[in-house]
User: Fold these one by one.
Assistant:
Number 1:
Amino acid sequence: MRRRAGKLPKGPAAPLHRRWPVLTVCALLLGLSQPLHATRAWAPDAAPGHLRIATWNMCGVLQWNCESTGTRTEKIRALKRLAGSDRTDVVMLQEVCAGDLTDARNELGEDWHSTFLPYAVQDAEGRRTAVRCAEARRGTAGLALLALSPLTEVSAVSTRQPAVGLHRGIVCATAAALAVRVCNAHLSLPNGDRAHADREFRDDQLKSLVGAADERTVFGGDLNSAPPRSADRDSWIWPYAAYRTYRECDQRSPASRAGRATHSTGHKVDYLFTALPRTGCSVRGTGASDHSALIIQVGAPA
């Protein structure tokens, strides 16, 4: 963690694309949950020998300037399309409401499983409050994994979080039937600590995320960061291994650090990295978020 010059913000930290409040990882473990099951809706038809893994920020927390990004029904429908029509085996989700996740999973069918890690806001006294979605039936907000496989070895990755503000987090799990481990992250924003506006957390969080991976892992999520290019003053936050030991979904060559935009502002903030052989990468507009979904196709682990 490094200190950054800057003034103490008057309210929640300003993200690259919108404003929202700020949470720590110890309490997050309490929010990890396993699924209920229902009748299967359809079977994704993945290419033999390949896995498709997506990341998507659903913008489901309406009070975080998401009011105009689609209704609850539209977001659930988009998630089901991503899991079904786009033939994904695992979907990493950020800013998802627990109720929406449960409904989508149940409608997809009994072969689909999920785990959920809630956001929380920590105040100056260390008290934590869960972030609730605007509509009561949608429940708590957080990040999640939705998989066409039972999820085992589920864990929240410990990393630095703001002393006062929103704690997002990192959650990993093994999709046992797919022989792959997935790690989903939602990183802090610059100036995300209301008590220490000069502190940068993304460097530590990226180090923790990369450190949780191995040769059978696909990891990424909404990293609230631009790619590490020379013109970007924040390039120093990226660990050396991110683009070297591993490769990003949209990385065209070992030297490349470019990637297609994944956010409505024209920025790339969503990423998927792996050491597995990459056989495809696509960006999908969903019509139900300010983020597009990013989908990587990889050779299945032996």
Number 2:
Amino acid sequence: MVAKINIGSNLYGALAYNQEKVDEGLGKILGSNLVFEPADGQFNVSESMNDFMQFVPAHFRTEKPVFHVSLNPHPDDRLSDDQLADIGREYMEKLGYGNQPYLIFKHEDIGREHLHIVSLRVDSEGKKIDSFKEHERSKAITEDLERKYNLHPAEGQKRSEGWELTPVDISKGDLKKQIASVIKPLASMYHFQSMGEYKAVLSLYNINVEELKGEAKGKPYRGLLYSAMDSEGNKVGNPLKSSIFGKSVGYDGLEKRMEKSTERIKSKNLKAHTLKAVSEAKQGSQSESEFRAKLRQQGIDVLFRRNDEGRIYGATFIDHT
């Protein structure tokens, strides 16, 4: 089981992220501590915010008071909701959050079940929860839980496997679910600055996206249609409107992601790794296949654009790191 801890300052954002999964039928609440859990399962961000904030004093010094962890069992692990809830509670207790308010969510948006737990890193007296060697302690806890619940061990797995994406396979059917399990995490994981870059990444997972622009009743509209593709790149099945997958993969949501990506790519100099890897791969490569192989060793895919004569006139490098 892989645990991924995030800390931040935006409690509303963490809760809203989980509410979106619940609203779309891709998540549900499995348990809570010191927070009201609606009997009908109708999660409300504002009401939960009030419950959380009543627990802490009006003023505290911790700049990042929000704790948000995802617990990712191996895809082959088969656990009931009760077992998942117990795992969530035991993890929080052992990490030192047993007396903190928290909500446990189950997500099914990436083709397998995993947990998200939202809590506070500040106690009722305004003191920060001890975070000394938190990641090391978290790993020890997940290993204990693996043994207790007879789970597949995470040892030897990359942390990124918790978010591993699987290309759409038209032979497996349920294309809507397969597409959803790729586009939603992909849109939040990758940095892309244009719709063209977004389309390039999607093509690696056998998904096509088309832009729709027009006018209806005198008002302009724009939207996106997602389709599965076969091994030859041909669209298969009925196109699906982005609205059925949620706002994050619609036109407006992707535009916001592109703006943030542009800022982060520049501020964090994210291109440096890609440029260095491409430069090194070009040196000594005697063929396209050799060049591709060297890039893949660095976690990079390349898409070439060719003219009718087969000559390359452009390339897109997709750095998965």
Number 3:
Amino acid sequence: MLDYDAEAEAYDATRGGVPRAEAAAAAVLGLLPPATGTLLDLGCGTGIVTTRIAAARPGLRVLGLDTSQGMAAMALSRGVPVVLASGTRLPLRAGSLDAVGAVWLLHLLRAPGAVAAVIAEAGRVLRPGGVFVTTVDKDSAHDVGSDIDAVLAPHLNATPADATADVTAHAARAGLHPAGEALFTGHGQGRTPRRSAAALLAGQYASRVRPRGIAPRELADRLELLPDQDTPRAEPTYRLRAFVRD
């Protein structure tokens, strides 16, 4: 698993930077009611998306939350107020927020029950009529029919943590019901064979790829045999789902 404290300073540059962050922020804002006054950004990371959500709606009070001190420090440097805590146990009172966001978070939560716990906590802290917005099917968005996908296909995790059907079921148990969706482009996330091989060996694909009958190094070697090693393949299209609190 990626060491987010160590990766914090370089993280944005390897994840599409400002264009991807702006696309994500715009998609989140499109699912929030105009009267939304407070938002908790779960897994806010470096705050690159959080700041753009806040800037687009000056009257919106935004709070970030992350478990990584390195990421939280980056968010704080961008002016985002951040709480160091787990999304499975939010230090907030019930019914205190208008919105909770979780962008590129649920797919990382592989511990049994973690996704359900995060969604339950989101439901707990939302007021009636409040909205929970989250990315779903994040890893599968990177399957764009490329030669990289063909190499990785036999080794993909068959049980993603953020599958739409599972997230919807967890949300229903938390008193949250579907209220819309949005798509946005993962700018700068078109993969190259060389970067994919490096990411695999660095553990960045831990939520997505489980090499079967092969060592990670050998799977990386197969990626490094593909043509056009530094030519990006198609960019992914991410999906956001919104759920409203009873």
